[in-house]
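User: Hi! I have a protein structure encoded as tokens and I'd like to know what sequence might fold into it. I'm fairly new to this, so please keep things simple.
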């Protein structure tokens, strides 16, 4: 077991080529400030993402949001005299992230596009287009990293604080591993969105604000008079702008009306517009009287959504469920006693993992979990919910 003592060692960044991904939001703006205040002059990049050409102009929602984002990114990079380049990843997003999302929801699963966007776009397509020319890619994620010897050999772990003036050496030296670790801000922690990235992507990742609380980031932005200081955090899927998730799905899959049935009685209580607009555990947006109603089951072949009436019905909970295709970020498999998340929440849930076949586990949660749905990522952490091992897809 690795030591609980975390020490900090200096790392020189002045000889590193650093790319900063600017989104136009407050987090990435403060990332640039944090690097510049240390005397660094990174290059900035705005990743241009959108749906297909027809959808991107429809209602103007996507274009308007993108224009505002780019204006903010341009203003912040200009403030610090840094070069800003727009990198077009539109087709990559459609071919990879959108296709993944639509294939999953069409099959009745619950995907997470943000998870795949980090793996395939921010640290994937961008790397292929421009990031390969840089030693490090800095983002505004709320996450930290640390290095340690191989856990099986014990030894002291070295924390890579988000304050890059006080960090340990990056990458592996001999048996040294780099770990993805949680942010001290449990509400904003984004390790669950990073749990599918590859080891080589983590090696190049730099999270300059990962050690800060969100309030601290806002305070820095206000103090430094950053144009994005009071800008609201984006909601929903990254890069969707003002387009909500259901509209996003509707544009690609359309509608497929079917019955909504009460599970206990078999009574038809209404109609839905497509099973892909609803997820297991959903409590809101059902639009039926006599609620609350909870989505507890979907029959994809018959296009039927089953709901249960009442608050938190027992059928909405699962305590034991399988996951497959477990992706270990740095090649280290999780221990038996872990904590986990199945959605983006501040809470870490205690559980025990039982290995079944290669890359597959049966999860035995300490207590029943609400809204466990096939297709969701189950993100695995150590028992201190500090290190993130990776994630696997729920297959219930």
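Assistant: Happy to help. Inverse folding works backwards from shape to sequence: for each of the 396 positions I chose a residue that suits the local structure. Here it is:
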């Amino acid at each position: 077991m690795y030591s609980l003592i975390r020490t900090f060692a200096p790392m020189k960044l002045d000889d590193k080529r650093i790319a900063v991904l600017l989104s136009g939001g407050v987090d990435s703006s403060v990332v640039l400030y944090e690097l510049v205040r240390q005397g660094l002059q990174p290059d900035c990049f705005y990743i241009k993402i959108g749906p297909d050409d027809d959808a991107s102009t429809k209602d103007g929602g996507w274009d308007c949001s993108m224009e505002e984002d780019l204006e903010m990114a341009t203003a912040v990079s200009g403030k610090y005299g840094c070069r800003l380049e727009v990198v077009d990843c539109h087709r990559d997003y459609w071919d990879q992230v959108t296709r993944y999302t639509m294939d999953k929801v069409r099959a009745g699963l619950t995907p997470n596009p943000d998870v795949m966007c980090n793996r395939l776009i921010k640290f994937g397509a961008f790397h292929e287009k421009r990031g390969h020319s840089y030693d490090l890619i800095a983002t505004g994620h709320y996450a930290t990293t640390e290095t340690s010897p191989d856990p099986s050999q014990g030894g002291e772990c070295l924390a890579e604080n988000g304050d890059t003036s006080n960090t340990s050496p990056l990458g592996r030296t001999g048996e040294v591993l780099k770990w993805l670790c949680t942010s001290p801000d449990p509400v904003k922690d984004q390790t669950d969105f990073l749990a599918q990235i590859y080891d080589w992507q983590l090696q190049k990742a730099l999270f300059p604000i990962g050690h800060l609380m969100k309030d601290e980031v806002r305070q820095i932005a206000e103090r430094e008079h950053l144009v994005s200081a009071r800008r609201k955090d984006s909601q929903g899927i990254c890069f969707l702008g003002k387009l909500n998730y259901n509209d996003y799905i509707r544009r690609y899959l359309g509608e497929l009306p079917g019955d909504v049935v009460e599970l206990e009685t078999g009574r038809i209580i209404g109609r839905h517009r497509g099973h892909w607009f609803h997820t297991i555990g959903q409590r809101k947006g059902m639009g039926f009287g006599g609620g609350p109603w909870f989505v507890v089951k979907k029959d994809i072949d018959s296009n039927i959504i089953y709901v249960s009436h009442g608050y938190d019905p027992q059928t909405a909970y699962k305590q034991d469920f399988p996951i497959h295709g477990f992706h270990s970020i740095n090649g280290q498999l999780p221990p038996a006693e872990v904590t986990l998340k199945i959605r983006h929440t501040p809470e870490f849930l205690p559980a025990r993992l039982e290995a079944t076949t290669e890359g597959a586990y049966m999860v035995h949660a300490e207590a029943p979990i609400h809204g466990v749905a096939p297709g969701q990522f189950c993100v695995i952490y150590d028992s201190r919910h500090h290190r993130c091992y990776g994630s696997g897809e729920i297959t219930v």
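A useful reference point when you look it over: The CA atoms of residues 39 and 315 lie 57 Å apart. Feel free to ask if any position seems puzzling.
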